[in-house]
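Deliverable D4.2, example record:
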Amino acid sequence: MILKHRGVKSVTSARILSVSEVNQYLKTLLETNSLLKNLTIQGELSNVKRAASGHLYFSLKDATSKIDCVMFKNAAMVLKFIPKEGQQVTLRGSLGVYLPSGQYQITVRSMEPQGVGDLFQAYLALKSELEVQGYFDQERKKKLPEIISRVGIVTSPTGAAIKDMIAIIKRRNPLIDIVIYPSLVQGDEAPKNIIQGIRTFNERQSVDVIVIGRGGGSIEDLWAFNDKNLARAILESELPVISAVGHEIDYTISDFVSDLRAPTPSGAAELVAEETMSMTRALVQLKRRLIQSLETKIVSNREQLGRMKKEFLRFHPRERIGDMRLHLDVIQERMLRSVKGRLKNDRLQIKNIEMRLGLMNPMNVLKKGYVRVTDNQGLSIGSVAGLKVDQRIKLHFIDGEVDAEIRSIKEN
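Output generated by the structure prediction step:
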């Protein structure tokens, strides 16, 4: 190594470094610099890629330069927008060296679109993504139950919105029970709180419908309701979910995913109470129509019964019953005579059959001295045709059997 010092040159020996050692030295040098450890930098996104691992890789560039960046999964998961090519962002992170290649890069901890306009673009991007995935399909939306006896509300317990909702529900239908799940409705932790509220009500199945919402505010104030994880929780809810966020002109992702959107929290309270009031009115009307129908039916049946009674008496039922009894006695006597005659004929037929069977019984023939002849298989032999000399046969007598052998055959 040659060292210069006040114009004097000298040569001294030095340790030879490896490539890894040089890269490690530069990495340590950059990562210990206070400015480079806490960078806040603006630029345009380029070559945005999301790996299967969930890590986000991209470049940040301006008109003349660019820097490689990496945003690891745990940081990328909490982004409130979808990074896209050409988007202007502000990011915070630290500058370091990737040892295998010796390239320096920014490890990004957080990233935000520039200005409110960019925040709205992030909202539109997420809305477009979820719409393609079917989150907003009308076919999957659940209807509110016809009778709502208990409503679960996920919102801030101290806000003006919950007070208005309670007042409206109690005024319109005092029979409805209200269960409040206290939740943050603004800030980074708000989506997690709201999701937990939805899941808690679903696990316990203690309410008929869930209302999530808050009062009005800026797009930043309402941003918790533009969370992708919250949208998934609403989609997966077994209980119907009503979204009531901000004012009538405010729209959030929750409004599109939920089963019903209310323009305001007060509007949600009116919807919940109106469903039950409408059902109550319908039941009252149905009861009135049912009573009228029953009364009409009773009057009609009484008149018909009166007419039938008159017709019945006109036919003199007692005399007719007496005649029918006499007629039944005659029929019974005829049936008995017929049965007795049939039994007598059947007995005669049975005796005749027994006699015929006795005549056909081969044992009776054997008693007269005849013999029945069979072959080895037990088949009867009634002719000499087919017999052979030395063939074994059996002779069946009345009192036993004899094995025999044919010595000669003579045909008549």
